[in-house]
Amino acid sequence: MKRFLALTLALLIVMTMAACGGSGGKAADPNTLVVWHDKEAAVIEALQAYLDKALPDITVRFEKKTSLTDSLKLVGNDPSSAPDLFIFAHDKIGVFAEMGILTPVTELISQSELSGYLPMTLEAATYNGSLYQLPLYFETLLFMYNRRYMQDEEVPTTTEELLAYMKENTGRGRYGFVEQHSTAYYSAAWIHGFGGSIIDADGTPFPDQQAVKDALEYHLKFVDLMPGETEYSTVNTLFLEGKADATIGGPWMVPSAREANIDLGIASMPTVDKTGRALAPYSGVQGIHVLTFAAQNKTDAVQKLLHALLDPEVGVVLAQASGCAPANSACYDDSRVCDDTLVQAMRTTAEIAVPMPNIPEMDVMWTVVGNLLTDVNLSKSGIDKAFAAALTQANSLIDAMH
Question: Which CATH number fits domain 5-139+283-355: 2.30.30.40, 3.40.50.1360, 3.40.190.10, 3.30.70.1350?
Fold first, then answer.
């Protein structure tokens, strides 16, 4: 009977709402599916256009929610308030699975139908042995550079080469390389490059403590050659204004770089000389999840929707619409995808990328690691002292969840 007090309370609220609200009009129409999302317009417009043609007998209505996860925690499976499905990143799967509001997609489609999906995307969508998401596309961080300053032949293939480049090209308001070095999402790549991790599948924080410490110590040499301010806007502005030769950023930076007329290059992540491992960023897998009420009461419509989304054409249209990297490997045989350098770069990075942990305990680790990075990189606290404080905080917060 263990699990999470906060989730239990949320579930009690949901049950109360359901008891009071009863079945709404939405629940009465088995051929209307409401899908919540928080995606950009181009993605949803492409999906809507595709589904309108693929499912002429089913109405799929997309509704944007800016605080989607908070809203879901409140409404749960209440048929009068909840959606039938939602599109979101995979990292909240554990939270909603523990609430009991999700149905594994393999209860509605066959596991064999997913054989062509990139293994990383299926790993990300799996929690406690069950696949709770049908992956649509994924995102990873990429090594980006401005060809005006860094030539293709100068792109570092190892971290020591990157460090040497930074030393030669940093000064007088210009930086050889910048990143959000004190943000957990970005620094995770360095931790993974040393064989460490922020948390394991069992909810144990920093399972290889020495690897994390080694990564923090090594990374400091790079941090000292970057600005102390690491907010996204600062890093983004430096790169877009030509004051930074290279950066590690997400695909969301590409449109701005192109608008700024930057001759943008994208390369593989550098390999850590000490370990032989590449900097391995987190990946976020975006996909569709099925709420239990809809799975039980709109089974036919939900199955038809999932089967329609299995078509590789979905990944192709999303790649064209917004540079999304498809989860279905068959999409990469299509010229409309294989000719897209951005999408292909993410496809290559997917070979080394680490799916963001989808267990509930990860929620507290973002704060813990952020505090640790601030202490080490900005406050210049000793690594051992800062790490001990972070581990104590992590264990305390995770214990409070159980």
Answer: 3.40.190.10
